[in-house]
Design brief:
The complex is a heterodimer of chains A (about 210) and B (about 290). With about 210 residues, chain A is of the alpha+beta class. Chain A contains six helices and five strands; from the N terminus they run H-H-H-E-H-E-E-E-H-E-H. Chain A is about 45% helix and about 15% strand. In chain A, strands 1-2-3-4-5 form a five-stranded antiparallel beta sheet. Chain B has about 290 residues and is α/β, with parallel strands linked by helices. Helix content of chain B is about 50%, strand content about 15%. Chain B is built from ten helices and five strands. Classes of the chains: A alpha+beta (about 210), B alpha/beta (about 290). The interface of A and B includes residues 8, 28, 36, 40 and 160 of A.
Chain lengths: ~210, ~290
Amino acid sequence: MSEQRVGQCLPLYLDNRLLLSALEDEDVLPADIDDDRKLLSQFRERASEQAVMVLEELYGMLFGGNTGTVPYRTDRRRLHARTVREHWYIEGHIFRKHEKNPHAYWNLYLGCLCDKGPAVGLVFGPQDDGSTHVFDALCLQVAPVIGIESANPRTCFTHKSGYKAGVIAAFAQLGAGRQYADLAEDLKTRSDAFFTKFRSDFESAIDG
Amino acid sequence: MRAALEADRALSGRDDAMLATAVNEAFPRLRARLREQHDDARAQIERDFPWALSALDWDADLLGGLGKERSEVSHTRFLAYLLDSRASHGLGIRPLRELFRLLARLIPGDHTFARLSGDADDAAERLRRVRVIAEHAVEAPAASGAGVEERRCDIWLELVEEGHALVVVIENKVDAGEHDEQLASYEQAVWKWAKDHRRNSFEQRLVFLTPEGRMPDGGDDHAAWLPISYTELAAALAHAARDAAEPGRTLVLLYVSTVAKWILEIPAQLDEVNFARRLAWMHEVIEQGAHRE
């Protein structure tokens, strides 16, 4: 299992995500490119398979058992079975000690970082989208520590991400052929660095 | 067994590589086609609706400097301000007329909004009588199940005439999802209003405004809500600037610029990829313009 590697289609898709989403939009796709339309459909299908595989494997490696990637109790949110395949993310709640109702979420997200290219990111944020400013401020501190130009998931991707408030606590670059185990290692190392340095800031940010 | 798995993996890897290569080869021509579409759309807007391009090209915008670029309350209040023909912006009925034109286009078989936004003599006068209220307090059954509680619906438009009344409710969602029973309580509030203001005929329209024009959560439970996107709204407001005097014209275009930059995430600076983000909005401007003629 640990020898599994990232395929070629997923990073290529992420790298061109904005262009592809524009092309897939029915209002935008030129009418006379039927062969290319089939090719893109096949490409998206393959990239989706690879996205599901890498996310599910990383979820198992990072959140399964007693891996300690996130120093809190977590669950996994299940909206419907097709979420991962359609949206290319897995998410859940974070519960602090004695917390019955979660105030924060975690999210394993595939996207194209402006400065790093295709990547899988581990994002944390508040359950209720209140003020974004406190998380925006945290992002500014976190970015240099985890080695990224911007740790703000709202703006650090080349494409729309849908995030409002949150912070990228860890990321791993998705090069074709990279082993899943190496991705998990990158995420774990950066996540540890994040919680070592910013755990109390993160909890303050959650509390607004 | 192991050898078979290895062979299968190798085959799948080759297939993966071939597909990636084919797509990589297709990208330049696809990008060129998209660019061509962008340039065609821009040329058409430059020719037919040139003022609308300012909102895309300006670096400045209305709410960004205040740090309120994605504040739902700020967008709600400013939109209500624009829709109020008696407000100080000097745009008169233009924004409201464009919104109603949009509704007329989106609602199958509509006559109400088509008449109100049309060129008939009395249409403008009727639009001037539309009352616009931001964060309108309505009574709704309490979440606890006992009694009633006050809720605020984002924008409430009402037109009360002899024998006829029209209410339009706009629920604006920039980021947050809808709360439990929120939409149902507005539906009940509208019906209560209709009961309290008896008229021979009563019409209502519930509008759900989001960046992408999605349906409310809960699907069929909220089938009465008409989803509209910020792309559609921003294009409608851009058309409202057409023959408007200053400073209203710049004001509304600066607001469209806020929507473009911060909600639709269309950067002012063009590069090889960003032009793709502009296309949906540009096509909407053209589409709405075509429906005017």
